[in-house]
Amino acid sequence: MKLLRYGAKGQEKPGILDADGNIRSLAGIVKDIDGGVLADLSAIRAADIASLPVVGSFASGGVRIAEPVAKVGKFLCIGLNYSDHAKESNMPEPAEPIIFMKATSAIIGPNDDVYLPPTAKKGDWEVELGIVIGKEARYVSKEKALEHVAGACVVNDLSEREYQLERLGTWDKGKGCDTFGPFGPYLVTLDEVGDLNTLGLWLDLNGKRMQTGNTSSLIFDVPTLVSYVSQFMSLQPGDVISTGTPPGVGLGMKPPVFLKEGDVMELGIDKLGSQKQTVYRTSL
Q1: Phi, psi values for residue 63, rounded to 5°
Q2: What local confidence, expressed as pLDDT, does residue 88 receive?
Q3: Coil, strand or helix at 216
């Protein structure tokens, strides 16, 4: 299933994408797509999708697509999870997963505008595979980790590199800026995604391909990450884990390339859809 949310900000409604690319309303089935619903998808699975009201065509762009999960509790990210990205960042390949938090206030829809902070100097892009928890995970084994995952999605883990790397403290301050967490366009359940270790990722900046990668190159795969994180904190339904980015970020260019007002980012992952954001700068 491809679960999504649509509508104006603050007025989002639950939906599902049918095989013909129509957005169908789930409002008569569930109130929203949040952790409670992801913990028990039986009502949606039992629904006759073809009988649900059509509210728009996904391809037409006539309706705003929101982030696919409401009320995200934790937005966790994994750093340097592709060896070639660690190399371009001039950092060693980690022996264990690097975990940092992204503020949930950074979350926006997949095609919403991105706003750089007023003092930002080194805005950057990162296409990443995101996974969403569907069942509470606490001290789970790697072998049972996927039983706790509801589905997967596209994440753009935007960064402000000066804040992240030069302003002391943890990475969080360069990762949690408002609008720095686009995800979606939909949440694809694992039965439809298939193998999480064979997904191609890409990102274009102003029409130029910057990132190309495949999840087969992850240093720590999804089961490892879910198991690892659950040793340090419990994971609740609706929590998001963004699993790291392949090479091709602006910081790694020679010379570095950073985001500026008017830039357009387009990014996507096999089977999980694509995003498109225009960059603006916040005024004081």
Answers
A1: -130, 140
A2: 78
A3: helix
